[in-house]
Amino acid sequence: xxxxxxxxxxxxxxxxxxxxxxxxLADALSGDATGAAVPATVPxxxxxxxxxxxxxxxxxxxxxxxxxxxxxxVDWTYETTFDWRPDGHERHDLVFDGLDTVATVRLNGxxxxxxxxxxxxxxxxxxxxxxxxxxxxxxAFRSPVRYANAQSLEFGARPRPYPxxxxxxxxxxxxxxxxxxxxxxxxxxxxxxxxxxxxxxxLAEARxxxxxxxxxxxxxxxxxxxxxxxxxxxxxxxxxxxxxxPFVSVAVAGPGLGxxxxxxxxxxxxxxRARVTLALPKAERWWPVGHGGQPRYVVDVRLHGDxxxxxxxxxxxVGFRTVRWDTEPDAEGTPFTLVVNDRPIFVKGVNWIPDxxxxxxxxxxxxxxxxxxxxxxxxxxxxxxxxxxxxSEDFYDLCDELGLLTWQDFLFACAAYPEExxxxxxxxxxxxxxxxxxxxxxxxxxxxxxxxxxxxxxxxGWKQYLDGKTWGAYYxxxxxxxxxxxxxxxxxxxxxxxFSPNGEHPNAxxxxxxxxxxxxxxxxxxxxxDHRPRFVAEFGWQGPPAWSTLVRxxxxxxxxxxxxxxxxxxxxxxxxxxxxxGLLPHFRVPADMETWHWAxxxxxxxxxxxxxxxxxxxxxxxxxxxxxxxxDCWPVTSWAAIDGDERLKPLWxxxxxxxxxxxxxxxxxxxxxAAVIGNDTDAxxxxxxxxxxxxxxxxxxxxxxxxxxxEPYGNATVAIAADIATPGDASAELVTATVAASxxxxxxxxxxxxxxxxxxxxxxxxxxxxxxxxxxxxxxGNLVRDLCLLVDKLRVDKLLDPAVGSGESGGLVDKSTAVxxxxxxxxxxxxxPGETARFLVRHGGDAGTLDAAALADQRVLRSANQLVAx
Length: 870
Hints:
CATH architecture of the largest domain: Alpha-Beta Barrel
Catalytic activity: Hydrolysis of terminal, non-reducing beta-D-mannose residues in beta-D-mannosides
Largest sheet: 6 strands, antiparallel
Number of strands: 42
GO biological process, one term: glycoprotein catabolic process
GO molecular function: beta-mannosidase activity
EC number: 3.2.1.25
Shape: globular
Distance between the termini: 80 Å
Enzyme class: hydrolase
């Protein structure tokens, strides 16, 4: 009889068991004999249930974070009933895919599970506890805040950057707040729960590895089974003419395998193990996005009992590729170069945090929106940061499908972690589970022990503070590499990020991976040019969210950079001071709020684009840059390129431009200037580079044409003649380096905008209908720097309404209006006099063209000129 699964997601109710519940909510949350309690959704969390019941305000608005902090101090209990009847199976397991976090589970009043780890699943044999008829299931959560504080007393205080001891509980660290994140202190049954009924045996673990071999490949499947009874286990391996012992079969479907029977193989179970190897004569290679296709193969794994019937089944979707990181020392230190299918890959990466501070709200559709935005920005790698969560299967499956490489941190971040029990065993259990779960994904190219803990131990005063206490070294240098070697030998492992492979300082520039934060914290972003790291795993710059996101979430009147709601939505230490200090070398601080907002967004985009062009220009010495960060988990001023309402910030356009398949940038070299041409495609790139020094009015002051050819996935450097690289008037001249046939262009300005003679932008705007939205043609009458359309400000509903005449008021968002959705993937465009840029603005509505006058509004059509010209 095959294993059956029954979801237990219905009929749940939530009540507050103990803790500081506000008096106004006490009756609604008491769950007393009157039956008062809140309907609960499973999977879900306390916050989403209270929101659905209209008992709390949106935690992301204004200062509701502090208003709702009591939730994390409360013990919460979920309860449901379900009907059960014996069905002939030998074994019945209660399975929780995720509990957040410290919970006691009771079935019919009997404790069946004590859980204390958000990052793992739980399975409990309840065959002796189930009752025929109605069964009562209760999950009682302890306050995560009070539990973490109590555990910190047990383990002893350890260094960390934030007040609450997140290192003392196996729960998402950023759930306690971060320098971009709201503290939510969630509790709940955050992943599915079910009853699994089975007989004889089940698949406890299936590890699938796809290895290319010439034109074909090999699939190795290692299976561990669990027996329903000791008697069944004792009978394993016995065979006769009528019946045979349980055996495992494997079948593979995928590209190039033809129309005949699927390739398959099988093996008997010996003890609790089986290993099946299947050779395929043809197997197409899986490649990162931008390097080839992403063919995938479905591996069907079945456990059979007596005769052909199936006891249990599972599947994995795999891709054939090889992966390694080249860390062989060279004359300049130690590289950190990703090699996929024997091809060095320049990593164009971004760091990922949980996409919502209430992660249960992130479904497959939302993952897909975010990851497709990453691909559209020319990214090829996403690093899942160690202070968040192991994301759902949907995340990794989409990365496989899209060709987005994944770098997965184990969940340890910016703190010293105890190695004592019970944490020690919990860490091993979660690591074993997650390695097995993730290792078959072709997108997975690196497992990393932690974020910044090796660096912290060396440089942040931890050694004195710890005074001999454990801090996590056992996990990073012993446990994790040992488990990876046991369970996933094909997956590379690094003890930390940053990390130097041969014992050097963990953040040493010539070796391995590096995090660069001095620019944001203390220096100007121009100093990125002072560094030539081998691989940059973190760096970034702050900027506010989209204007419509900001005014939706902060209701301050007046709204200013320092108004109370703005400060609540700025989590970085001295964040606004750093924003100002980072702006002043480039622009003056604007007087009005909306222009301040644009200035800070533009400076963020310019800082990161400047750095990325610099790092990319040094390939193959530098072979990757991973921007902090792709996404936000709520509306906040942060380092993200996509804000908490899923809107693109100008930074996204900067990343997209710097990581384009073919780029030209102008860089300082040997006391002069050079044009560096980057070709991240599989074809040679020959052409002619036209290099000019121009005045701001477009007059050509000096010019050269230079032929070039760039090999596939390579760079070429073209020295710029001294008469072009030397300005006559630094405040009013620039250098352009343009590919004659295709138009890729790099720019060099001799002076910062604030010290230049940029004039007010003279622009004309035309619109026309286009597939998917409105084509916007913007023509410059003079030099216009960093042109952007902040189309989130448009009231699309009004602009597409025939009753609203051209140019009438009401087309822009303010704090009281609903936001019409519009976006463009074009931005940060610099136009020389007479040039035209085309923006495709995508918007809702089946038909209609956006009004040119509304698009030309100076609040929507933004440029650097607005921050300079008087």
